[in-house]
Amino acid sequence: MRKLIALLVTITVFTSCKDEKKTEKESPVVEKQEETMPDFNTNVEEQAVIYEANIRQYSPEGTFDAFTKDIPVLKDLGVKVIWVMPINRISEVKRKATDGQFTSDIEDEEERKKYLGSYYSVSDYRSINPEFGTLEDFQELVDTAHENGIYVIVDWVPNHTGWDHPWITEHPEYYTQNEAGDIIDPINPDTGESWGWTDVADLNYDNQEMRNAMIADMKYWVEDVNIDGYRMDVAHKVPVDFFKRAIDTLKAVKPVFMLAEAEQPDLLQNGFDMHYGWEAHHIFNDIAKGHKTVKALDEYMVKIDSTLQDDDINMYFVTNHDENSWAGTLKERMPENKEIFTALSYTIPGMPLIYSGQEYDMDHRLKFFEKDSIPKTKGEYFELLIKLGELKNTNKALNGGKAAASYERLNAENENVLVFKREKSGDKIIFVGNFTAEPQTVTPEASGDFTDYLSNQAIKLEGNEITLQPWEYKILVK
After folding, report:
1. Residues with Cβ < 8 Å from 38, sequence gap 6 or more?
2. pTM of whole model > 0.85?
């Protein structure tokens, strides 16, 4: 057990780089505890499941405390990393409602109150959103996760801030401005028009002092609250050299895990550990709808073998907060086949994601700008995630980090059936999946005695034919 030592400290944070200036803001008071949990390391990445925590919608209370109570449940799912969606105070100015209008334009006060705004419109990078609780509540979340062997990364919004962030008035030069000198919202460089993110102000990365202040704020949460890294929102819209310097600064404090919301190899080459497998996600959706075949996935796997380095990590997912709220639920996008794509995300090289509510087979588009809640009824899908998580955590053939297990495609003659083998350190798995709505047969190019992991039935492969029902799959272990 950990030895707990409560220390009350008030910290003024300095940046670690010699050209960074002392920040004007005093850090909040926070209780710190002595840690015995190992720092984040590459072994964690190999067999981890990552969980995206939507604190607002996770429970009826929508608080850190309500989420913290369920951290042992996430441990049962094989979760090793919790990604907490933005925890900072949300801007009141230009706060958006569900229909896209600003809450200030809503005359009815009670109607106006129900719109809580976007998590990604941050009014203070060092603040805690009071909707979720206090700094002490968040510290308890981090400490409880660590007690359960789980690391915590926080969603950070480096591309823009809300319109009432102190920088707006204190440092307008930190922002992109038009010819009239007015601060503007983010612009699509391809069209020269606004993306429509009118509730946020675009940051100017040509300003070095802004970069210094941003890095100092990021360092605070790692150094003083003991988080384990960041998920960087719209990372592809922020200069790569900024991230290189920021991550170097954080890693001088302690090892951190960095996830980029991007599919951009040069970010992985400049400090990030993992990025989104967006292309794979869209291929999953297209195959599920019958618009593509397994051939598209084969081509993707060949492509990333040449575009990514051996220590690059893809995050694979069947849903996340954007997909659920805007693109549709799993029942909408994968009505009969979410299980096979979920299993695929666990078995190909990389790290699988679970989004809040996914484990409870949520058939609901969560509201984005107002309060909502996920179900909490465990069913067959929950049990599937437990089984997949256990296999991911324990079988080295599913290692997917910087020292990933091998991936070998087998049986390419049937474009409707995916068969691949993975091996490492004496562990072996064979995945066999029918990615169509019709029965299929295949003869795996493998021999030996295996166990069907999910049914626990013995299977002998010796050139024999296997018949798979629509969307049926097997994970054979040896």
Report:
1. none
2. yes
